[in-house]
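[agent] plan:
  1. take the single chain provided in the ticket
  2. run structure prediction with default settings
  3. attach structure tokens to the ticket
  4. add a short note for the reviewer (M.T.)
[agent] executing step 1
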Amino acid sequence: QQAIARLRDAAQGEVSGLRRRLDATSHRPTGPAAQAAALAALVDELGWLLDSLLAVTGPPGAEPCRAENGQAMAAAAAVLRASGRQLTGLDAQPQLGRLEQAQAATVRALVQRASVLAAAPDDQELESQLQRTFRIRAITFTTAQIAGYARTASGLAPRPPVWQALRQFAAEHLSGRSVWLRNSIRGAAGLAVAVFIAQRTGLQHSFWVVLGTLSVLRSNALGTSRSVVSALAGTAAGIVLGAAIVLVLGASDPVLWGVLPVAVLVAAYAPRAVSFAAGQAAFTVVLVVLFNIIQPTGWKVGLIRIEDVAIGFAVSLGVGLVFWPRGAAAVLRRDLAEAYSRGAAYVMVAADSLIGIAGPAEPSLAGQAATAAVHQLDDAFRQYLAERSAKRASPESAARLVAGPARLLRAGRSLASLDQLMAGSEHDGSPGTPGESLDGQVQALRSWYVTLGDSIVHGMAPPPPQQPDPEARGQLLQHLRGSLASGEGPALNQALAVLWASQHLDILRRLEAHLGEQAVSGPGLPLRG
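[agent] step 2 finished; step 3 output follows
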């Protein structure tokens, strides 16, 4: 047990450290590129995997398929090691076939040893015997997801057909909610206006108008207004510092060439390490030095630049007001609501598919919509973190709220995989059946998460978390006992699938209290902005 505790602590430290490093990274792996999206998704999947592993690290209890569970865990460990080697650039092939066989063997063992389950003295003992197998199934499923993301992030996954890639790109980014589309339109419009003004006014150094536009056009309208002030102050400070350097060093090319790399290094790191104004000042010094190398004019080049750049700042501010009127925080709140709604809908459709309420194609469509919403949310969150205002508050609470839709998406995929257990079984959601009970649970779950999203958008109190329903769980366990007594394989498969689906819903229900707390007290997501 001590060895397990040490390994557990080490795993928790590594996953937590990975999350912190991701949140602290200036240029996070995000965006429309498949490799970047897969690398970001790996962090969430590893967190989910760790949660499932922690649930099975206690002393083993009675379980009817201990040997098969052990083989499944060994197969998962081998796949994880191979995926880790792929991420480091080594040649490795995760044995996903072995993992799938281990998953199937676990379910077959449960069905074959129905008599052991039927002998459980009460519902608590019956559920306890099934709980470890449920968790291990979740572990193996998550491991397969991690292997897929690792392969994609490593650039080893085969590229999808062009039409499929274009369809996915359109679903995620040809929308008014897409941060990438908004930024692209805003940037194009800003540059077009800057070039037009520079040409119409006949400015001698029109390049600086465009450069001034680009310098500030990377934030929202509120952030742009703050950036304009910082940029002008930084430019003025840079002129003073650059003039001092030129006056002290003179027009000696060798000396100025020696100063230039140092100035470029400071200009690259100052915006993040110090402030936006410091970065602008350092950039101005670079330009003063560079222009005195190309065409020695002394400190006056700074005055020429500040006039042209100020025009660019004004263009940037105007375009920012037009294309992003309320800032990244408002977009993040709206995308949170959309992602929670889409994710909850996917969970509902995947669960309803098990009991025949939803058609066979509906889970796939709902999953695509939920995936697109989660990716859009991730982009909006990265934009929010890049804002100057985001530094005034801790982003941890916002990050926890942003992680919620990914949990819903992950649960929906796992529920969809349970449909494999239903092969040869009748999908029954008629009144009085376990399917009816499951449908009631998932409807309530979806309603809660949709209401949570609405409360985030409108700045209202989140809904109270749902209370567990022992009666519904008792009905599912009684149905399982009846299937065990009948000894019919298809009926037992259906009972197991519905019970495990209910356990997935329980995990999401327990998450409600945590998300509600973050929505109430989270300082990282202001109600207005």
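[agent] step 4 note for reviewer: The chain is about 75% helix and 0% strand.
[agent] ticket updated
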